Amino acid sequence: MLNKFKKWFTSEPETPPPVDIPPVAVVKEKKPRKPRPEKVEPPPPTAKETATLNNQPYINILKVEIDPSDINNGSFELDWNDKFLLNLIKAGYKMREDDADNVIVDRWFQTVCRNIALEIYEQNQADPDNRDVRVIRSRDLGNGRTEVS
């Protein structure tokens, strides 16, 4: 019996038969992705940019301001491109060599406003109901003199 005890203590322990363990997959940690910048589409070209690209004249009224205390006074804010300004210069709106761009455009705008006022006046005068109905009487006073009333 002692031999059995001795065998237990001196002998190597029995190893269990090897078990096939599948290899453990090594999972690498993924680096966090940088967020992609959103594609920002450029805004569509403005009417002025389109006209300039097409080599066409451009003029626009941006703002009209009226003085609330005196409605007869006001101002216009205009926007134009170089092609429009060149057309005005060719049409003779540049009077002096030192005329600034805004002076040339202002001269043109005053002409347009004047033409509108004259057209309205002419239409008003062409209408018989709106004419001044003044009776002009003249009387011969003799000796080449005439009285007009």
Q: How is the largest sheet built, in terms of strand order?
A: 1-2
Count of individual helical segments: 4
Structural class: alpha+beta
Can you give the helix content as a percent range?
25-40%
Features:
alpha+beta, two-stranded antiparallel ribbon, 149 residues, 4 strands, single chain
Quick overview:
The chain has 149 residues and is an alpha+beta fold. The chain is 34% helix and 19% strand.
Textual characterization of the structure:
By secondary structure, the protein is an alpha+beta fold. The protein has a domain at 45-129. It contains four helices and four strands, in the order ααββααββ. It has helices at 2-10, 47-53, 82-90, 101-126; strands at 59-67, 70-80, 138-142, 145-148. The strands form two sheets. A two-stranded antiparallel sheet has the order 1-2. Strands 3-4 form a two-stranded antiparallel sheet. The longest helix is centred in the last third of the chain and has 26 residues, at 101-126. The chain is rod-shaped, with a radius of gyration of 49 Å. It starts with a helix and ends with a strand.
Record the SSE blueprint.
Blueprint: H1 2-10, H2 47-53, E1 59-67, E2 70-80, H3 82-90, H4 101-126, E3 138-142, E4 145-148
Antiparallel strand pairs: 1-2, 3-4
